[in-house]
Amino acid sequence: MMDDKFAGHRKKMVETQLISRDIKDQKVLDAFYRVPRHLFVSLEMRSQAYEDYPLPIAHNQTISQPYIVALMTQSLGLKGGEKVLDIGTGSGYQTAILAEIASHVYTVERHRLLSETAAEVLNELGYKNISYKIGDGTKGWPEEAPFEGILVAAAAIRLPEPLLEQLANNSTMIIPVGDLQQQELLSIKKDNEGNISKEKIVGCRFLPLIGAE
């Protein structure tokens, strides 16, 4: 899976952008060392793939800044072996990071081209533990629920009720909430009794989550 040409760039990214900013989860760091981020952007953007900022992809979407992908993944608190729902496949990079840790990732994307392009890259990289759905991410994937982790890569105006319902007890959802002017990255936890608690992680800036919910 590694491309030696970019291995040094990956190592530098992990050390200067992640470890230096308190990304400590070794499973997350190992995933970032392994996943070739440059394959998830266009040929024109490859020289910038490991830089400390988001990059444009098709359909006016973006591949998030590496640190934000790492922070969201670390905040999920995966131990390894979980069933995870990934809302907003986009380039497929976040999906790959999750697939390195989780036992299975169910990823939903509303743009057919993005979903198919991401699936092509992920299949070429050999991931067998990812299922793809083209549809409304705010509705989640009810047929496969419950999920032991949910990660949402677009900003919701409010918490989508179907995603809360599909979150397993003793599990976490990471989701940006807010409008185009102000957003917060939230950690939503469901306890053993099904009670919901919310905690702010950081201010953020994501494209809006679009869907019925």
Mind explaining what this structure looks like?
By secondary structure, this protein is an alpha/beta fold. The chain has a single domain, classed as Rossmann fold (3-Layer(aba) Sandwich). Helices cover about 30% and strands about 25% of the residues. The protein contains 6 helices and 9 strands. The strands form 2 sheets. The chain has a 7-stranded mixed β-sheet. A two-stranded antiparallel sheet has the order 1-2. α2 packs across α4. The protein is globular.
Number of helices: 6
How many β-strand stretches? 9
What shape does the CA trace take?
globular
Count of separate structural domains:
1
Distance between the termini: 37 Å
* SSE order, one letter for each helix or strand: HHEEHEHEHEEHEEE
Low-confidence stretches: none
The CATH first-level class comes to: Alpha Beta
